[in-house]
Write a structure and sequence with these properties.
The chain has three helices and no strands. It is mostly helical and 86 residues long. Helix 1 packs across helix 2. The longest helix is centred in the last third of the chain and has 31 residues.
Length: 86
Amino acid sequence: MGNFIPLLAITTSFIGIALAQQSNNEEFVRLGRKAAWGLTVIPPAALYFAGVRNFADVLAFAGDTGDLMAFIVLPILMWLAARLRK
């Protein structure tokens, strides 16, 4: 019973983040509802079924992917967009 409250907190947090991500995919990426749902659900499920069952490993993968996008891919795309506008 002592683990129920942390489990509930983590679960509701994950559900909220997933719904927010799905909404972002629908609004900003302009995907249909089914495609946004698939993009939100399939990558984490693929990680789980690939054998990554340690929560810390999943967080590390998500953090590394986010860092890659935020600090490497996004600046390169911003530089390319600025260069193409000139």
